[in-house]
């Protein structure tokens, strides 16, 4: 897994033996065991890593073209509900969508659909998990008035 894995050497003396994985990939799912030997004692702990995958189809989102966003997890229980939150901390522009499947379809994505999205997965065993991602949309976000004035001899954008 090198070079994606590191130990935080500066915190080892304080008893922090955390493993850092950047970026996490789907194939990293599984059980991890840490063993620490100190003098004659051996301490160990087990940590299970689950992964949530967010997939865009198509991967490059273009304004007004159908967009499917899927959210899946390695969790083994049955999926009960998927909720999508858009710009949830920005007041009146925030939106929420919930469905039984893990897929959100946006028929005609607009520049206003860009920004922070969070998918929240709720499972039959009461487990709730979420992932946040930033949606970028390719399109034209120009002035509402298509007339631009510029002084002769200057640059116009």
TrEMBL record:
Q: Which residues form the Ig-like domain?
A: 50-130
| Gene Ontology molecular function, alphabetical | MHC class II protein binding; protein tyrosine kinase binding
Tell me which Gene Ontology terms the entry assigns under biological process.
interleukin-15-mediated signaling pathway; positive regulation of ERK1 and ERK2 cascade; T cell activation
| PROSITE patterns, per database record | IG_LIKE
Query: InterPro entries given for it?
Result: Ig-like_dom, Ig-like_dom_sf, Ig-like_fold
Ranges annotated as spanning the membrane:
none
Q: Which Gene3D superfamilies match?
A: Immunoglobulins
Name the SUPFAM superfamilies for this protein: Immunoglobulin
Per the record, what is one GO cellular component? membrane raft
Q: Taxonomically, which superkingdom?
A: Eukaryota
The protein in question is named: LAG3 protein
| Species | Promerops cafer (Cape sugarbird)
